[in-house]
Design brief:
The protein has 9 helices and no strands. It has helices spanning 3-28, 33-36, 50-68, 96-121, 128-145, 153-161, 164-171, 174-193, 201-220. It is globular and about 55 Å long.
């Protein structure tokens, strides 16, 4: 089985369950928007965004091949789960901003839970390559989505916990946030790399955070870590 196919098998459930977690937590908090839209399902077709999941990654790949002769990075997203924050309540308590932070945190939390479950499954001694890759993918998704900038989940959490004045300012960056993330974390490092300039803040951060997170998952799930 090819590495690319194993990667695909690990990536799809990690993304789907991430999105499903948002919708299900919103459902538990009283918002039925995701359920009524048919998004509380593990059917991958319900979560595919024609632009974000297919067209945009294809455009990135073709553009990089034409410009650099190879693909340096890819980026895409699933169809956002529809949520009405004004429907959210907890024991009669309504606070759309803070309850939306809980819904936002559910996606990365799901990825971290999946990484822990995969760590427990390692004890079975089967499908080790898949499980190790599944752990890495879920940790990466969780860490990336915790970047505190809308429309990422970390941005929604930050909007929910920051003082209102700061939260409003951060919330206004949602339209440009994804462009800023693409520019600083992906496009600029790829372009500068063609001129021999090393600038890759996300890769640099992940090179420290991911090994630590992997060791933590293996330790918590009782797996032996070599020296």
């Amino acid at each position: 089985m090819s590495t690319g196919f194993i990667f695909f098998l690990a990536l799809v459930p990690a993304i789907i369950l991430h999105e499903l977690a948002h919708g299900y937590v919103a459902h538990l908090l009283g918002d039925e928007t995701a359920r009524n839209a048919g998004r509380l399902t593990i059917n991958p077709l319900s979560h595919i965004d024609p632009f974000g999941s297919v067209l945009f990654p294809l455009m990135l790949a073709v553009g990089q091949i034409l410009a650099f002769g190879h693909v340096a990075f890819l980026y895409g997203w699933a169809k956002p789960v529809p949520i009405n924050p004004f429907n959210l309540q907890l024991n009669g308590y309504r606070d759309p901003r803070r309850l939306m932070a809980i819904v936002g945190a559910a996606g990365p939390a799901m990825n971290f839970i999946l990484a822990l479950l995969a760590g427990l499954a390692l004890h079975g001694g089967q499908a080790l390559t898949f499980l190790v890759l599944f752990i890495e993918i879920n940790l990466l998704l969780g860490i990336f989505n915790l970047i505190p900038l809308p429309p990422l989940d970390g941005g929604r959490v930050a909007v929910g916990v920051l003082p209102l004045r700061w939260a409003r300012g951060l919330a206004r960056t949602e339209q440009s946030g994804i462009l800023l993330i693409l520019l600083v974390l992906f496009i600029l490092p790829a372009v500068l790399g063609q001129f021999g300039v090393t600038f890759d803040p996300f890769r640099a951060a992940v090179s420290h955070i991911l090994p630590w997170a992997e060791r933590l998952v293996l330790t918590l799930t009782g797996n032996t870590i070599g020296n």
